[in-house]
Amino acid sequence: MFYGSERLLYTRINPLARQYIFDKLERRFQYNITEIFNTLDFDDSNIDTWSTLCSQLSNGIMSIIGHINVDDFDWISDFCSTYQVPFLSLTNNYNDLKNNFSISLMPDIIPALTSVLRRYQITELVYLYDHTCGAHRLKQLMQVQVSNSTQYLNILSRFLDDPDDAYDLLQNIEIITNTPTRPVLSTDSNNKKTTGRYIVLDFYSFDTYRIIMDKIKHRGMTTSDYHYILLS
């Protein structure tokens, strides 16, 4: 089940790779597996989502693979728990998993980001995002920020509204990260503490990454002082 054009995120996976997984499941569980795509508009009042799900169950659906908004995860997770239908999420919902019938196929990247921050003793970063999924990960990072699992960390979050009109936003990032007394990066292997401008990019689509990176290059924000971390 997919919302609007998000079906492309799944169909982008190599068909041979998908078929390989299906063949393994068929041999192990002796099921006949067939892909059935449903593209839904959850905002359309004329569509009864519950009836659609129940209809799929009556047709012998054994699991649901979906790319959904984090705000919609609770109700579909409860549905799968009630009817014991495995739900494979294509989004990062680790903190929202409440039963044994839901699992996320996306790796949890916040612990990896936290490890990088601790290892290099990064105390300030800019978090640039453009979607609710990015806001969800930002919330996870802020929870780490207030815990004792990491050193002092100053997070400067910025929301990207329009990637085609991002020059003012990039200029703002350049200004707020411009510290005149910023020291040079340390190359001493015994001293892991590094300084510079650390910018996390958490965007919903590859096209946004391409557009923003082109604008970053155009603004000259590519010197050795800049360090970009791409989360998705």
UniProtKB/TrEMBL annotation:
GO-annotated cellular components: membrane
Q: Which keywords does the record carry?
A: Membrane, Transmembrane, Transmembrane helix
Output the InterPro entries linked to this UniProt entry. ANF_lig-bd_rcpt, Peripla_BP_I
- Domain called Receptor ligand binding region: residue spans: 52-229
What Gene3D superfamilies does the record point to?
3.40.50.2300
Question: Where is this protein chiefly located?
Answer: membrane
Q: Short name of one Pfam family for this protein?
A: ANF_receptor
Tell where it localizes. Answer: Membrane
Superkingdom: Eukaryota
Q: Does the keyword Transmembrane apply?
A: yes
The answer to whether keyword Transmembrane helix applies is yes
Name by which UniProt lists this protein: Receptor ligand binding region domain-containing protein
Q: Which organism is it from?
A: Adineta steineri
